[in-house]
Amino acid sequence: MAIDTRHVGRRYGPFRTTVCAERIQSFALVVAGGVPGYFGPARDEPHPPSDRVAPPTFGVTFAMEPFALACSDPELGLDLLRLLHAEQEFEHGAPVRPGDVLTTLGEIVDVRSKGSLDFMTVRTETVNQDGERVLVARWSAVIRN
Amino acid sequence: MKTLAEFHEGDTFESTREADRYRPVFYAAVSGDFNPIHIDPDVGRAAGFPGAILQGMCTMAWLADVCTAYLGDPARVKRLRVRFSRPVVVGDVVTFRGRCVAVEGPVVRLEIEARNQRGEEVLKGASAEGWLEAG
User: Which residue in A60, A67, A78, A144 has the most chain B C-beta atoms within 10 A of its own C-beta, making it the best mutation to test that interface?
Assistant: First the structure.
């Protein structure tokens, strides 16, 4: 069933997150096998250096909430068992570092159908405590009818 | 760290990652994506897959990591774009093959293929841009 286009423009947030060095380190431990610098040589440095920039898709930790809420929004009524993440874009701005306070707003910017597939796209924009843009992301879901 | 002059059109890079059985749980813990389709094999099967499927964002994080290793610094990774063309299921091994397609001023353009152990593409149209300081 096609998603009603009246949902375009629906907003989620703002959501506020404080970036924490330990979370950057945990994230890096799980996904950043190829990049040195997040850990000391013998793991004897428990934290990444305070000026260490977060890995490029760390934005999932602070910018995914609007997309997750749109996917499970009762107003849209999407079937989560038929829903998959379809496309993703990140455009990074100012680097994200431990201690940053980030604010994210999201908006449904597109709904469309293609054959038996429905698509929904949420755009999020995240700024830091200085008002600098750190991330613009587009999150697209596909619903397989 | 590599300087801009050391990046060339035609450079290639490659890396392999395994979606071991704990990977979706580990990724859920650090990302906050606890959608049960990634955690519970029964939910994965109910959705039509052989079991739990890996978060697409984890595959993208691997891709970003492979690009970061080539570019030399996470702060250089400016843009990332992917289409998730096939789910990565627990047990899959994903090989990323990247290529520098252009160096335009301070911008290094990359295209990346990601295939599972059966040679099937799990990402389509994956691209990245590295932005470097000149000099």
Answer: A60
A105-137 residue pLDDT tens: 999 999 999 999 999 999 999 999 999 999 999
Full domain range(s) for residue B59: 4-131
Strands (E), chain A: 11-18, 83-92, 101-114, 117-127, 133-144
List the single residue in A81, A82, A91 with the smallest CB-CB distance to B78: A91
Which domain CATH number covers A134?
3.10.129.10
Q: Is A33 among the domain residues?
A: no
Q: Which residues of A touch B14 (CB under 8 A)?
A: none
Cα A103 to its chain centre, rounded Å, is 12
With 0-12 / 13-18 / 19 or more C-beta atoms within 10 angstroms meaning exposed / middle / buried, residue A131 is: exposed
User: Are A80 and B37 inside 8 Å of each other by CB?
Assistant: yes
Q: State whether residue B81 sits within 8 Å of chain A by CB.
A: yes
Across the interface, which of A54, A60, A81 has its CB nearest the CB of B57?
A60
Residue B32 contacts A where some CB pair is shorter than 8 Å: yes
What ipTM describes this predicted complex?
0.95
A61-119 pLDDT, tens digit each: 999 999 999 999 999 999 989 999 999 999 999 999 999 999 999 999 999 999 999 99
The CA-based diameter of chain B, rounded to the nearest angstrom, is 54
The tally of domains found in chain B comes to 1
pLDDT the model gives residue A36: 54
